[in-house]
Design a protein that fits this description.
globular, Thrombin, subunit H, five-stranded antiparallel β-sheet, Cytochrome Bc1 Complex, Chain D, domain 2, 23 strands, alpha+beta
């Protein structure tokens, strides 16, 4: 959370089953649907969600505390998309309903909360030059410090709720809000991206990405009085939208690995968007002797913000995965792999360098860039 314009914007970590238009009824699941969901859950999900020693996946008892529509979102466009790819849309509903213990409610669309036309079409450049908090770090250097927001130790105790905004169908909303003058940009794990009026909370526009959005959004000038908003999603897609209208300018899949995701907020600097990728799920699948573990490598992709063209891509592990033997089932194994980049890159404009932190390795041989900090050349991506 951070203050700009004397307003404090907070995104909740868990907004389970909460909807801006009110609480949804919880219809009971019929026995036939429950049986189908039970069979599918046992076949597709129980290995992780009912395993005694797996602390990476919530138990069935924990899932029962969640809203069925939130579980469905996770299976459809969230972090379980890869695991659910063999399920039909009807199967995913059945699994979500069994896991939650109740039926997915039917939400009624509402047109409330929309900003009026005059507010939506105001000159964006005026807002862009006001006090702002842009992206995850506020500025490319990720100092996460601002002096122009009006929040002080003296007035902090007097903060009061100005407005609240509910994220429909969302299990979580971890996207730190980006505030550009009178505009606020945020998103949730449904893939819904929102541009709100920072003063009133009314909705200026919405856009739906192909998967959930976890990292903060960044705004930058495109020249000729136009501005773009940039972000990544849970299927490793990077986006550029018109900041004032929400119209898609471009979309680029930065990594084709089925387990690649974008969790860290892409950083925008000097006409380029620097997009980190991490991997979800492959490390856990490495426990399965029938899985050819592992081949994902974390990376940074540099994209031209004007046309969405890839300028360079640099892997955290520069050696390509090679055969490292076979599993007990005779399946070929690969490595090195892992070193996902989970956080937002930090830009060092004085040295022409960006810095990233990497995660653990999934498979050997061990690399010095696993669990490490890497400096990359801004122009080429070469490791410094």
């Amino acid at each position: 959370m951070h203050s700009t314009m004397k307003l404090l914007f907070v995104t909740s970590i868990e907004l389970v089953g909460f909807c801006a238009c009110g609480l949804l009824a919880q219809p009971q699941q019929n026995s036939a649907a429950r049986n189908v969901g039970s069979e599918l859950f046992a076949r597709e999900c129980a290995t992780c969600h009912q395993a005694e020693n797996n602390d990476r996946a919530p138990s069935l008892q924990a899932l029962r505390e969640l809203a069925p529509e939130a579980i469905l979102t996770t299976l459809t466009s969230g972090r379980m998309t890869v695991q659910a790819q063999r399920l039909s849309p009807a199967d995913r509903v059945a699994v979500a309903e069994f896991a939650a213990g109740r039926a997915v409610p039917v939400a009624t669309a509402t047109s409330g909360g929309q900003c009026d036309t005059a507010t939506t079409k105001e000159n964006f450049e005026v807002s862009f030059n006001k006090p702002s908090w842009n992206g995850w770090g506020g500025k490319p250097g990720n100092a996460r410090y601002a002096t122009d927001g009006g929040l002080t130790a003296a007035n902090a105790p007097h903060l009061r709720l100005a407005w609240a905004f509910g994220f429909p169908r969302a299990l979580s909303a971890r996207t730190q809000p980006t505030v550009i003058g009178d505009w606020l940009f945020t998103a949730s794990d449904t893939g819904d991206v929102f541009a709100l009026d920072a003063k009133t909370g009314c909705t200026r526009w919405t856009y739906t990405a192909q998967a959930g959005v976890r990292g903060a959004l960044s705004v930058a000038s495109l020249g000729s009085g136009k501005y773009g908003v940039f972000f990544g999603d849970g299927q490793a897609n990077a986006y550029g939208l018109d900041a004032q209208t929400g119209r898609q300018l471009w979309m680029l899949k930065v990594d084709t690995h089925p387990n690649a995701v974008i969790t860290g907020a892409p950083a925008v600097y000097n006409g380029r968007l620097y997009v980190p990728t991490s991997g979800v799920g492959e490390e856990s699948r490495g426990q399965d002797p029938n899985y050819s573990c592992c081949s994902f490598r974390g990376s940074i992709s540099a994209i031209d913000i004007r046309d969405g063209e890839l300028r360079w891509k640099s892997y955290a592990i520069q050696a390509e995965p090679r055969s490292r033997g076979k599993s007990s089932k005779g399946v070929e194994l690969f490595g090195p792999s892992g070193a996902g980049i989970w956080s937002s890159p930090t830009i060092d404009s004085a040295r022409g360098v960006l810095y990233v932190g990497t995660g653990n390795g999934y498979s050997g041989p061990e690399q010095k860039t696993m669990n490490a900090i890497i400096a990359m050349d801004l122009q080429t991506g070469a490791h410094k």
